[in-house]
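Lab manual, section 2.4: Encoding a predicted structure.

Procedure: take the sequence of the chain (122 residues), apply the prediction step described in section 2.3, and record the output as structure tokens. A sample record is shown.
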Amino acid sequence: MTADLWPAPTASSPVDATVTVPGSKSVTNRALVLGALASEPGWIRRPLRSRDTLLMAAGLRAMGKHVSTVGDRRWIVRPRPSVGAPAERRRRGEPAATCPRSERTDPLHDVVGLPGQRPLRA
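Recorded output:
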């Protein structure tokens, strides 16, 4: 059985390298939620751009937060109070926004306290 093992390569001298680790959906979504709950603007360095993280950003925008996802190296989150259409809908007792449920938008649903596909209330 030991004959089937693959011999791992070894370095003949010390290795000196820099590796850039790709972003994480979980970390990016958590950072988006924390940024939206913060008292001051912040930024997320090297976020992972994916369907789930873009859905999270869209959900936060629908709740009146400013989330800039234009660049791939840095996203900006400004936790401004809800204004405009979301605030107007809230005054009428309507949901401020809806957000599709996905594996990575769960933190947003959990923070707002509404399970499932129900509308979010900001």
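Check your result against the sample. Confidence is low (pLDDT under 50) at residues 113-122.
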